[in-house]
Each structure stands twice: as structure tokens, then as C-alpha cells.
């Protein structure tokens, strides 16, 4: 249970809005928390597009008031063109966004309440741009804390999965479309709010049109991917994620790639801050942030710098379930990463379906998976509720090649990224492979441990796709996501291979038969020996935070839950995912926000060209001067050569249509 703090070492002063001027005259809106009567002090900046006024109001208060009460000036800054900031937003992580962030840091450092030192802190988008701005080295930026983010915008984000089109690509575009034309608040920006709003309506467009135009890892994705040059980041970095998050694998990559002071922390969490979780156990995360910043900006001794470089939650085996509110396990650590302690165990995929330490002859085993493989997959990245986890993997195994060890003679723990070294041929020019590492219980139940997918036209690189020559033998390496997991004695380790994984990966244009050469294909498993030093690790404090701003959750109706339906006559399968559905009143600012949204994926078994994603979003802000709404629908479909994007947008004021626009675009498929 998280403790709510109402008193702190310093009284907290809140400035609802200040404007941060940019060199071109544009003003960015920020909310400021600072210790009253104390200063100047170091500043902590969080930089997001999610509307500080009403969008992230409650969660901002819980964190920034706590940190301000412990001696920091904290700012929540709206990105240009979002919330109450002037200008327009055109895409995520643009050059303008990064430069604005650098300029904002310089301005903050020059204020009389700041001592000239700034840290950046944030999850997801705010973690992304923290890394990107750190690579530009603004002089006043002293450290960053990046949570649930990535160093590689192509390989580890919501757009592409191993070079396959991710289910979240269109879905996320629809989410941002629903937020980018919401109006600023006249109580903050004054009479200019309507002109700003109308400019946003005209500029808003589905970002999927950008993202689908770059289906390889080209310069578009390399921009903002700090893995292109890790040496550009020299300040201390604290990188954090959760094993249930989409971004966990970026933490070990940052530890391996950066050369400056750095620490990595991965818990059992979903896409959340570690003190405010849906997957327990939570930790005293804000205390960790304070210790880190106290060390790097106040010269306090100790801090997390005394901890091992990489600390993770070693997860115990759990039965398959669509929802986990707690993951049993323990904290373990490695002094450096990559760790010389990790032993790489080779397990060969053998002709009899056995996974073993020795290769037992070469054979050819074909697989052409039905399109229902993947219905047991769950979400790409998880928030922790609404049945987001994979179900029993025996469902998907029915359409896959499966290789399993004998029952384990002893407990086996892994830490790192398993790799499948695949030798194969294919009968089609385009194909994908999904590789699942599963924990098989003695009674046959199967829990997915980690996953890797690869568009096989990207077998050599994500930059240079090349069609497959039917019948030719190729080699490919499939990287599975990093994980920490304990396989108990008596369980089996299993590898499952499929040529479809809908809706996580958009299917290839034709159903392909992949022929796996067993005996020449093997799994590299990162086995972690036990370490007695784990028992002496410093304990985390219990979680705590400041009280949120007042809010009342109203009846928003029934939100969609993740569900799978199948028409046994037509073969159509429909997967629904929950999206933002809520109704929240914020009495301190006199606003109520309602939102309902859905994402629906359809496909007919046997026909990969029937794949579609449908989205809908309705967001209404009710203020004393009226009700202002966004209403949109979208649809992504395909044929053998093109993707088709159809989107309809309508803006309302007090229920009356104020603005409308439609898009219907065809974008060529590029080996996807």
C-alpha cells in the first residue's frame, strides 16, 4: 500500500502556469512546484504532450509535489502545440521538440529559483526525449532518469516488432490523433485559445501516414535513437523499466552502450512508475529519485551510485493467467552489464521435438501457421489490468513447431536476451517468424516467458530488406526480449516457432511455409548462476507519494475488455483491446473530461489480406464556457502491394460540428 504524504521537510508552493519563452517567440506552458522560502535549488523537468492542465494533473501532483517538498523545483512542461503551449505538433520526437527542450533547460537554469542545475525525469515519451536531449548536451542538464523508454525508436517502440508491422502502430496513431486537437484553456492562455484550437484542428493528421512511409530502419527512425551514438550521452543516467513493459530490453542496452555513470533497474512492473503500480511489489521510487538527484546535484554521499550497475526482479514461475496483480520473486543484481557471470547455454532443436544440449541429426520440419496463432498473445506492452497477459500457450502451440527439454533436474534461472539461431528455407518471398520461450508445467500448462519476432526479409538488417528466394537455405538470428525468470525443477523449457502472430504482427501478404533445419538450429539461453551477494542488497523503502489533486471518477459506462471472438462458419476472428474509457471531474479547475475509445482487430483464417484494424475515439472536455469534443474513427487494411489508411475526424463545440476532415491514403508495402 502506497503511503500518501501530506507534510514534507519544505512547504510546497504551486504555480499553476508559467510560460517558458522559446527563441522564435513561441511560449511553452509549464506548471511549477517549488519549496517555499528555499532557494535557489536544482530543478527537475518532465516534458510531455499529454496536457498538464487536465490530462496528467493528478499523477503530476503525486510526484512533483513530493519531490518539491524534499528540496527541488519541479516543472511539468507541455510540448509545443499540446496542452496550453503555443505552436503546433507534427510528430513525435521531432528536431523542434528536442531543441525546444534544450532551450527550456537553459531558461530554467537562469531563473532565480534555480541554482543552475536541471535534471530530466519521465516515463515513456518523457523518458524518450530525456535521452534524446541528453545526447545534445545542454550545459545545465546534469542527469536524466528515464523510465519505460528506448534507445532505439525502430527496434523497441510501438511501431515495428522485429521489422514486422506492430499492432500498436495504427492504434497509437489513433490515440495521438484524439489528443492533438484538444483546445487549450482560456484561463491559462487567454482569448487566444480559440485561434490556437482552430490551428490545431487544421494541422492535426494521422501520424500513421509518417510511420507507414518508413517501414525500414532508415534516417527517420535513426533520428532520436540514441543507440546511433551512445558516446553523445556523458551525464549520469538512471534507466528503469518493468518486465511487463514493452521497453524493458532498452535498459540493458543502455547499460552496455553508455560509458558514463549509469544504473539500471527492472522490476515486475507494467508501463508505470515503480511507486504507483498495478503489478506488485511497488518500491519507494520517489525516495530513489531523491537519492539519485541528491548525489548528482547536491553532492550528497551514497545514493544509488553505491548499488550494483544492474538490479532486477528475478521472477518466479507462475501459471498462465490473463492478469497478474503481483509477481513473486526476489531482487538480484549484477556488478556490470554485460555480466561475465552469465553462462550461455546452447540448446539444440532436434528432429524429435526435443530441446537438448546435443544436436541429434539434421532434419527438415515445415510449419505454415494458421492465422489464429497469436490470439493467445495478449498485449504488446502492458499497463497491468484488463486481461492483457498471454493465455495458456498450448492454444498457440497447436499451430506452431514446438521443442521442449526433458523435465529440468534442477532450478534454472535466466537473465538476459535469449537468441534463436535459425537455419531455414521458405516457399514465399516474404515471411515472418515468431519465437516464444515458454515455461511448461508438469501438468502441461504453458506460460510464455519471453517473445521475439522477425520479418525474415530483414534477416541481415532492418536497414536493408531483401526478399527470400524460395527453397534457398538462410540463417537468421531472432532476438527475444530480455527477461529474468526462474524455471523450477521438474518444469520444461520450450521453444515455439510460428509463421503468424496476429494481431501482434501484421501478417505477410501470403501464407508462407517455413522449413526449419533441426540439428542446425539452436537456442542461446542466458543462464544466471546464483550469487550469495544478492541477499545483502540494500532494501527499498516502502512506496509513498503526495496527495493527488481533487478528482471524482464518474460513471463512464462499460469499457471494452480484451476479448476474442470467432465465427466458426466464416472463419473471421475479432480481437478487442481496451482503450482510454473514463469520466473524470476535476473540481479545483472546474473541468470534466470524458473519453471512450476502442481498438478492434479482424482477420479471416486462411486470408492474410483480410487483416484490418479499426479504431474509434471520443474525447470531450466540459468547462464553464462549453463542451469541446474530438470524435474520430480509423481503419487500416491492406492488399498484396499496399496498406490503406482511412480516417474520419470531427470536432464539436457544445455538440455542434465545428470542423471535419477525412483521409484515404494508400502506402506501398515495403517487404512487410
Automatic annotation (TrEMBL):
SMART domains found in the cross-reference section: PepX_C
Domain Xaa-Pro dipeptidyl-peptidase C-terminal: 290-546
Pfam families found in the cross-reference section: Peptidase_S15, PepX_C
Gene Ontology MF annotations: hydrolase activity
Keyword terms of this UniProt record: Hydrolase
PANTHER family (alphabetical): COCE_NOND FAMILY, PUTATIVE (AFU_ORTHOLOGUE AFUA_7G00600)-RELATED, PEPTIDASE S9 PROLYL OLIGOPEPTIDASE
Protein name (Swiss-Prot/TrEMBL): CocE/NonD family hydrolase
Organism: Albidovulum salinarum
Amino acid at each position: 500500500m502506497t503511503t500518501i504524504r501530506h507534510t514534507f521537510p519544505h512547504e510546497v508552493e504551486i504555480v499553476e502556469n508559467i510560460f517558458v519563452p522559446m527563441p522564435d517567440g513561441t511560449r511553452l506552458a509549464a506548471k511549477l512546484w517549488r519549496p517555499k522560502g528555499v532557494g535557489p535549488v536544482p530543478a527537475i523537468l518532465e516534458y510531455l504532450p499529454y496536457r498538464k492542465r487536465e490530462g496528467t494533473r493528478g499523477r503530476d501532483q503525486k510526484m512533483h509535489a513530493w519531490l518539491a517538498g524534499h528540496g527541488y523545483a519541479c516543472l511539468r512542461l507541455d510540448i509545443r502545440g499540446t496542452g496550453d503551449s503555443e505552436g503546433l505538433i507534427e510528430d513525435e520526437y521531432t528536431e523542434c521538440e528536442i531543441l525546444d527542450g534544450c532551450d527550456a533547460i537553459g531558461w530554467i537554469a537562469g531563473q532565480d529559483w534555480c541554482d543552475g542545475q536541471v535534471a530530466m525525469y519521465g516515463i515513456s515519451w518523457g523518458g524518450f526525449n530525456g535521452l534524446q536531449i541528453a545526447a545534445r548536451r545542454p550545459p545545465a542538464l546534469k542527469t536524466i532518469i528515464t523510465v519505460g523508454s528506448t534507445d532505439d525508436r525502430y527496434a523497441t517502440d510501438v511501431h515495428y516488432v522485429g521489422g514486422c508491422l506492430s499492432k500498436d502502430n495504427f492504434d497509437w496513431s489513433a490515440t495521438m490523433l484524439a489528443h492533438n486537437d484538444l483546445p487549450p484553456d482560456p484561463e491559462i492562455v487567454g482569448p487566444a485559445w480559440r485561434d490556437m484550437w482552430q490551428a490545431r484542428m487544421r494541422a492535426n493528421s494521422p501520424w500513421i501516414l509518417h510511420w507507414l512511409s518508413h517501414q525500414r530502419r532508415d534516417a527517420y527512425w535513426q533520428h532520436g535513437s540514441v543507440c546511433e551514438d551512445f558516446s553523445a550521452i556523458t551525464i549520469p543516467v538512471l534507466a528503469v523499466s518493468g518486465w511487463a513493459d514493452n521497453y524493458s530490453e532498452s535498459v540493458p542496452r543502455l547499460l552496455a552502450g553508455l560509458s558514463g555513470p549509469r544504473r539500471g533497474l527492472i522490476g515486475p512492473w507494467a508501463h508505470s512508475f515503480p511507486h504507483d503500480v498495478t503489478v506488485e511489489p511497488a518500491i519507494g521510487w520517489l525516495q530513489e529519485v531523491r537519492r539519485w538527484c541528491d548525489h548528482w546535484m547536491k553532492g550528497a554521499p551514497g545514493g544509488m551510485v553505491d548499488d550494483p550497475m544492474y538490479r532486477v526482479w528475478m521472477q518466479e514461475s507462475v501459471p498462465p493467467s490473463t492478469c497478474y496483480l503481483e509477481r513473486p520473486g526476489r531482487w538480484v543484481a549484477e556488478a556490470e552489464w554485460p555480466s561475465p557471470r552469465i553462462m550461455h547455454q546452447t540448446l539444440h532443436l532436434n528432429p524429435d521435438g526435443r530441446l537438448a544440449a546435443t544436436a541429434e541429426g539434421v532434419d527438415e520440419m515445415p510449419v505454415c501457421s494458421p492465422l489464429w496463432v497469436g490470439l493467445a498473445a495478449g498485449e504488446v506492452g502492458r499497463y497491468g489490468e484488463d486481461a492483457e497477459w498471454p493465455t495458456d500457450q498450448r492454444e498457440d502451440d497447436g499451430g506452431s513447431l514446438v521443442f521442449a527439454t526433458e523435465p529440468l533436474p534442477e532450478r534454472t534461472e535466466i537473465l538476459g536476451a535469449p537468441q534463436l539461431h535459425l537455419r531455414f528455407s521458405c516457399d514465399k518471398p516474404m515471411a515472418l517468424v515468431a519465437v516464444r520461450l515458454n515455461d511448461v508445467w508438469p501438468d502441461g500448462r504453458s506460460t510464455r516467458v519471453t517473445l521475439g519476432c522477425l520479418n525474415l526479409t530483414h534477416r541481415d538488417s532492418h536497414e536493408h530488406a531483401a526478399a527470400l528466394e524460395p527453397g534457398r537455405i538462410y540463417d537468421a538470428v531472432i532476438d527475444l526480449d530480455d527477461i529474468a525468470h526462474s524455471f523450477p525443477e521438474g518444469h520444461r523449457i520450450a521453444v515455439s516457432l510460428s509463421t503468424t502472430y496476429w494481431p501482434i504482427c501484421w501478417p505477410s501478404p501470403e501464407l508462407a511455409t517455413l522449413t526449419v533445419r533441426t540439428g542446425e538450429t539452436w537456442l542461446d539461453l542466458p543462464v544466471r548462476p546464483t550469487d550469495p551477494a544478492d541477499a545483502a542488497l540494500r532494501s527499498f523503502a516502502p512506496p509513498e507519494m503526495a496527495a493527488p489533486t481533487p478528482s471524482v471518477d464518474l460513471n463512464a459506462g462499460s469499457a471494452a475488455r480484451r476479448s476474442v471472438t470467432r465465427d466458426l462458419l466464416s472463419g473471421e476472428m475479432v480481437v478487442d483491446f481496451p482503450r482510454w474509457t473514463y469520466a473524470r471531474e476535476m473540481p479545483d479547475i472546474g473541468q470534466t473530461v470524458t473519453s471512450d475509445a476502442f481498438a478492434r482487430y479482424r482477420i479471416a483464417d486462411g486470408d492474410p489480406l483480410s487483416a484490418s484494424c479499426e479504431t474509434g475515439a471520443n474525447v470531450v472536455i466540459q468547462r464553464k464556457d462549453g463542451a469541446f469534443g474530438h470524435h474520430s474513427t480509423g481503419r487500416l487494411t491492406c492488399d498484396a502491394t499496399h496498406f490503406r489508411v482511412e480516417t474520419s475526424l470531427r470536432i464539436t463545440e457544445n455538440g455542434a460540428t465545428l470542423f471535419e476532415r477525412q483521409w484515404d491514403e494508400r502506402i506501398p508495402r515495403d517487404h512487410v
